[in-house]
Design goal:
73% helix, mainly alpha, single chain
């Protein structure tokens, strides 16, 4: 290694030792903006910088590996190491904490801005309509279960609204507002959310 590179290596290692997070942030910002810190002479070349796979190679391997693991995925769904519903319920506190953190950090909007309508159309076109229609065929039993829960509650909403006066615009406005209020109650009843007592 050239003396200049050795000196650069010492400086770089000292910076990493002092504050690795700050070094990471600076390097990540440079690479995100299209700058190669090695090519720019900001950090030494080998042996410090081991190359990560190129984005094209990495993404290609992800896709091919996922496709090859289809049978393993289905076997895992059929034979989980533990009940997935129980596991999800056991980790409700973790889910809530991560959701609060995601909301605070605005992850939803930040990640949405990385996508585009054109990307959505390209994926949907590649998958074809069978993915959409087939999903409903596969969920027929679940859809029937949900509708059987909702139907009697929706009928109760309808019966209640039909019993309200309907002569004036004010009457009709009250009916609309009550329909909304009662449908919110339907959602809470289905979720098992306890009613808040009226004050």
């Amino acid at each position: 290694m050239e003396p200049e590179e050795e000196e650069k290596l010492k400086v770089f290692r000292a910076a990493v030792e002092a504050d690795p997070v700050a070094v990471f942030e600076q390097l990540a910002d440079l690479r995100r903006d299209g700058f190669d810190p090695v090519a720019e002479g900001l950090i030494p070349g080998n042996p410090v910088t081991k190359k990560v796979k190129s984005a094209d190679r990495w993404a290609g391997q992800q896709v091919e590996n996922a496709k090859a693991a289809g049978d393993d995925w289905l076997d895992g769904v059929k034979n989980p190491s533990r009940d997935p519903i129980a596991a999800a319920l056991d980790s409700e506190d973790k889910w809530e904490d991560r959701l609060k953190e995601a909301i605070k950090d605005k992850k939803w909007s930040k990640n949405l801005k990385k996508s585009s309508h054109a990307e959505i159309v390209k994926i949907a076109s590649a998958l074809g309509t069978g993915v959409y229609t087939g999903a409903f065929d596969a969920r027929k039993d679940k859809i029937e279960r949900v509708v059987k829960e909702i139907q009697p509650l929706s009928q109760a909403v309808s019966d209640t609204i039909q019993g309200m006066p309907n002569k004036t615009d004010a009457d009709r406005e009250k009916r609309l507002l009550m329909a909304r209020k009662l449908m919110i109650k339907v959602g809470k009843k289905r979720a098992g959310v306890p009613e808040t007592p009226s004050v």
